[in-house]
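Bug #2210: token dump truncated for NIPSNAP family protein?
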Amino acid sequence: MIYEMRVYRCVPGRLPALLKRFETATLKIWEKHGIRQAGFFTTLIGDSNQELTYFLAWDSLAEREKKWGAFMTDPDWMKARAESEADGQIVGNIVSQILTPTAFSAVK
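Reproduced locally. Full output below:
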């Protein structure tokens, strides 16, 4: 199992729009493609309270490539993204890291 950590730094004031998009659209589209989330977090204390951090669980890099690629080109996702950004851009920057658990990690 590998995990992907994604950190979305929002345009100031747009975090609520991002959270709404995940809750009402993105998660349903992920379910259609078999994308498994392993947790969502907002920043309580840190550099910016305009961030959403989440983790995805993958069996392999090949699974990620296939499912993420299908999601990114899904017409439902493209429509949801466009509709959610009708009032302007939501995300200013995305950082993604692929992580593998250590032998002593509680998460495997």
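Output looks complete on our side. Helices lie at 15-33, 61-72, 75-84. Marking as cannot-reproduce; reopen if the truncation happens again.
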